[in-house]
Amino acid sequence: MKYQQRLNKVSYAVSLCLLVSATHALAQEDDVIDEVVSTASRLQGTAAAVVEERKNQAFVADILGAEQLSRTGDSDAASALRRVTGLTLVDGKFIYVRGLGERYSSARLNGAAIPSPDLTRNVIPLDIIPASIIESLSVQKAFSPSMPAAFGGGSIDIRTTSVPSDFVAGVEIGAGYDTSASDGNTFNVDKGGIPSILQEAIPRYRGDFSINGIVDRLKLQSNENETAGEQARTLNRQLLLRLPRDFGVKNESLDPNYGGQAYIGNSFEEDLFGGTIGFLASVSYDQDSDFAERRTAVLSQDAAEDCSTQLVTAEDAASSCYNTVTDSEITTINERLNGVFNLGYRWNAHELTLNNLYLEDNEEESDIGSLQSPAGSTVFSIPGSGRANATQQFVYEERSLQVTQFLGKHTFLELGGIGVDWQYTRSKAKTDIPTDATFRFIDSYDQQGNYIGSSVSGDNNRAIYSYTNMDDRLNSYGGNMSFPFMLKGMDIELKAGFDVYDRARYYTTSSFQVSNLGSTPINANDGSSDPLLNNTFLTDDLILNSNLTLLFNEPEIPDADDYTAAQKVEAGYGAFDVFLNNNWRLSGGLRWEQFSQVSIGTSSLIFTPEDLNLIYSEQRIEEGSVQEDDLFPSLALTFLSDDNYQVRASYGETIVRPDLREVVPVTYFDPLTDVRTFGRVGLLSSPIKNYDLRYEYYGANGDNYSIAAFYKDIDAPIETVLRIGDEDYSATFINGETAEVYGVEVEWLHDLTYLAQGFFTSGNITLSDSEAVIDPALAGNLTNPTKRMTGHSQYVVNLQLSYDSSNGEHSASLVYNVFGERILAAGLGGREDAFEQPFHSLDVVYKYYPDFNSTVSFKVQNLLDESQEVTQSDIAVRDREEGMSFSVSYQYEF
């Protein structure tokens, strides 16, 4: 029944589109038209340049301008791009183009490659790019020789705000509220990272913090006062005492969301050369608070059709669908600081630009969870046995991206209009997690389900402290030269260029665990205090008078959980663009690209030459190395009609390569899937053949429509497969044999003034399908060796109904987005694939312009109050509430 309800929402949305089209057709049947008045709305007028750019592209592309971003109220690049035809947003960060996962898309900043501050992916999380610094977003869906060959679904170019031609200045302040975030569990953040005494202890004790390890390493001897073991325990206690042990957790009202920005820019004439110098500076700060209840479950392989998804009664526990169920309360407080400073110089047909961008994204998150195991290997539940395993996790993460770009554009009119553009970019992404502490308890309940106390069991991993650092640096430079000329009635442009970037990433993580192994359970709470305070059980008195031991939780060599990686791409291309009789356009060329990469797991336990030789052995280096050298052709043919329409057809060959971390044999937690993930040595790249066909119509009044078809043939696609554990899932990667994805896209911008003055509609619909075939030899116990591709949605719908008042004082938009269910990961052992269910996003944005300088904005997001849900075998295995959000802002331009 729930599926039918979701289908109906999509049907309503599509019916609205058809209704608008039908009304338009009926209106055209009127015999008499006394007068035609063409008026441009605020969006239609400012979007003209964007539409013109798309129209003039040689290859299929979609463009979003700054006004379109403002219209939808999207605050960052990620949320804005989900409005583009065929694009869907995953985890609020990553863009899927035409149903293909984030690995099939790439993002560039002003045409340059940049690193990613995301710990688990090469591609940059686009939520870190604020809308306030974006001038336009370009999504090219058909491959051209001037773009990187690592292309599958689309290449995204983020164009930042340029230096203004006149004086501009403004300020904006705003505040917001989320219905799910009235109260949350906050904690005191420790930003100090690993205590220095622990850093020094790792080489001192060669990573072995056990009592026997310290005795052996220091060659301790018993004396009349203490045994060698007692001396070692004292040293171990000194380490444990230095860890943060009181996080001050409390449930309290969360601060409302708030933020502000300011900018100023101007241009000046200079007398020395007669050019123009300009600058633009901006700064913004935002803080958002969020609270969500999440359920994550592992489906039982023997679940009956009438199994229970609830855990309220003992009967529910006895007939549960799940091995384990974890219910969590997640509180997130995110703050972002962004700064931009650009300089520009323009002289005749020459332009030089220096762009400086700094983005900082800090997030603190508490996760208070309770795990029950109604059908696991060890059976326990609150209604069944009065027990649950409690977890309290506190994480603070700092992400930053720093980019410096030198850009040049030159047109040499005296040389026949030869054009040259170039860029040199230095960028650095950095992620630090100075706090990641997890505490585990056994909670006890009475027969009525009332909490009565918590204890710490006598084994390892009762408290875990992890510290993570990732540094990703990338240098990029490239240039293009174009030469236009005419030959026998043909306008011809020849183009050539090069593109080089080198990248280095270093990732380290250190984990320490508090062990109570072999000792009696510790009473953490007798039921008289708030369970949120259970993490304070590690008191000085307990540490000094118990057998608790701190251990360094690092894999033994040659296993590793750190890695280092280097990557270099060198490319060159030649291309042509030919216009024949103003009706035909033929574009294409050839790109040569050499790709080199080395990814090696490493360790902080390298203390001897033997350790070094094991980690950096010739075999491991060879296994972690990739060297590819290939040619990538591209060809596009466009028919340009005299009746305001054009038809494009294109073909291109590209490739998609594994992420740096996917080819390293280390384990990491993937925040996108919420599962532990294992890298796999030997993953292959995936060559792709791309076919595109698109019809575009551009009306004189600003209306435009397009319909497109696409087909992609993929060799050795990289697929994610689940591993099933008793208490949780894990995942890894394999290469399938083949895959294909195909579909159609429809897009429109249509004026509705014939129905009501000031109204217009825009939107797009994508319908597609895919199939991935996995070799049975690699499939193992994969339930469906032939299936849809991971991350693919069979439909994507974007609808927008907008209004601009005739006096220019009011504008409003109702914005709807939905994607079809998509495979999160392939299922194993008879369990079906895990599907993320459709999320129906309905937002409303209203703007009031009281005078020429001021703008008041009001925005409501997720009006339908939808939740995120993942199902497996039609049973929910993950559910997270999102809540509705309200925000208001005021902007003043001087």
UniProtKB/TrEMBL annotation:
GO CC entries: cell outer membrane
Signal peptide start-end: 1-27
InterPro entries (UniProt xref): Beta-barrel_TonB, Beta-barrel_TonB_sf, Plug_dom, Plug_dom_sf
Cell location: Cell outer membrane
Family assignment from sequence similarity: Belongs to the TonB-dependent receptor family.
KW Membrane (keyword) present: yes
TonB-dependent receptor-like beta-barrel domain: residues covered: 446-863
Keywords from the UniProt entry: Cell outer membrane, Membrane, Receptor, Signal, TonB box
Domain of life, source organism: Bacteria
Identification of the protein by name: TonB-dependent receptor
Keyword Coiled coil: no
SUPFAM superfamilies, per the entry: Porins
Domain TonB-dependent receptor plug: 58-146
Family matches, as PANTHER family: PLUG DOMAIN-CONTAINING PROTEIN, TONB-DEPENDENT RECEPTOR
